[in-house]
Design a protein that fits this description.
By secondary structure, the protein is an alpha/beta fold. The chain contains 7 helices and 5 strands; from the N terminus they run αβαβαβααβαβα. It has one domain: Rossmann fold (3-Layer(aba) Sandwich). Helix content is 46%, strand content 15%.
């Protein structure tokens, strides 16, 4: 007998998968977990991974959602990538921008900030250590986005929910 129809949804049913993912995100938010989109330059991936690992070890109630991109923003894949990133941003309650010289120069980070603004998302800049970088992505400079050290991120996000 071959495969075929079934009354239960299959793994290939994209609509069902999307609905299950949205339901899981809502449940996390109801339990105090915040779904956060993190925007960063690919060159900063190792630092961002260390900070995410630290957040997990500290049992911080934040779930990070990102898409690491190596394709140029004007590549043939860009429209597809932008749509997927836009979908992820829409599922999050806040966008966190990892601040670095690389982020300031990244076209993708600039686009992610603009998309987050378009969707009405809160944006927080975050940096390692205690010294705020002087150089911020332009979209953040013009909006007066709050910037905090990584150690204050969970506290700052919690304040947004109040």
């Amino acid at each position: 007998m071959g495969g075929g129809g079934s009354d239960s949804p299959s793994i290939g049913d994209i609509g069902d998968l999307v609905e299950r993912a949205k339901r899981a995100l809502r449940e996390r938010q109801e339990t105090g977990r915040r779904n956060v989109f993190i925007s960063f330059a690919l060159e900063d991936l190792n630092e961002v991974n260390l900070l995410r690992g630290q957040a997990k070890n500290d049992d911080v109630p934040i779930e990070f959602n990102d898409w690491s991109i190596s394709d140029p923003i004007n590549s043939e894949k860009a429209p597809y990538i932008k749509q997927k990133i836009s979908d992820r941003i829409s599922q999050c309650s806040v966008t966190v921008v990892y601040l670095s010289d690389n982020a300031t120069q990244s076209s993708w980070v600039g686009w992610e900030i603009a998309e987050s603004i378009r969707q009405g998302k809160e944006i927080i800049g975050v940096y390692p250590g205690q010294t705020r970088p002087q150089n911020l992505p332009e979209a953040m400079r013009t909006r007066g986005v709050r910037c905090v050290p990584w150690s204050k991120l969970a506290e700052t996000i919690a304040e947004l929910g109040q």
